[in-house]
């Protein structure tokens, strides 16, 4: 984990408390400091540890200017040649700010994968959670990354539409995933974090998270109604009630059968116990 920025330049998503503290206000870490960190990591690697993967953080570090990122990628190549893959968090805003040529330059300099919290394909939900981008923009971002040869790992959130828009959220999320066709998808379960705007909505009765069966029904809809060329689909995050890890499209039927069995039985013993669930 190489910190190249602090906080998140958006910092408005209603469910997120990652960078709440004023000390975590978004700022770019000076290149001189990053250079020192890379030097330290290189010295550590020279003592016998092989560093193959580097992740550039915080929040949406892809928002940094392209020249700045290129310089960091060059530092990594020069000082830690064992690195095979560099990943970064990005969102539709930060991806779309880059031109196809800039993304290609980043890919050629070693940027291999962008992790992108899409959360939902439903524009009403995206607006309500203040995601800062629309479904159409997320699809355009996916096409830009593909064109540049950068892999795309997309996260969606079960339950983020609440009970009220559960069906619309799941159907639209299947639709957006089909249109984006990313090689990696992670389906996480919404956790309402205290002191967030989402928690305030929950307290006011304006947001009701679907129960575990409702959340799994959303997962079933997403799995049944999406199509992929070739996708590693994970729903095994610690927040999920039923861990699933599928190669799609090959494993689609197996996943649906497993979900149908659990949804028909409605036996809590089939689910990950609450005490083992986490954010
Ligand atoms: S973009 Fe990510 S880090 Fe930033 S506020 Fe939204 S969820 Fe939090």
Could you describe the 3D structure shown?
With 279 residues, the chain is of the alpha/beta class. The protein has one domain: Aldolase class I (TIM Barrel, Alpha-Beta Barrel), CATH 3.20.20. It has ten helices and ten strands. It has helices at residues 31-46, 66-79, 92-96, 100-108, 123-128, 135-148, 166-180, 197-203, 212-225, 252-265, and strands at residues 2-3, 5-6, 27-28, 53-57, 85-90, 111-119, 151-158, 184-189, 231-234, 245-248. The strands form two sheets. The protein has an eight-stranded mixed beta sheet with strand order 1-4-5-6-7-8-9-10. Strands 2-3 form a two-stranded antiparallel ribbon. Helix 2 (66-79) links the parallel strand 4 and strand 5. Helix 2 packs parallel to helix 4. It is globular and about 55 Å long. The chain starts with a strand and ends in a 14-residue tail after the last helix. It binds iron/sulfur cluster.
CATH architecture: Alpha-Beta Barrel
Number of beta strands: 10
Largest sheet: 8 strands, mixed
- CATH homologous superfamily identity: Aldolase class I
Strand order of the largest sheet: 1-4-5-6-7-8-9-10
Radius of gyration: 20 Å
Judged by helices, strands and strand pairing, the structural class is: alpha/beta
- How many helices? The count is 10
User: What is the number of independent domains?
Assistant: 1
Q: Estimate the strand proportion.
A: 15-25%
Which H/E pattern describes the elements?
A: EEEHEHEHHEHHEHEHHEEH
Question: Which regions have little confidence, pLDDT < 50, spanning 5+ residues?
Answer: none
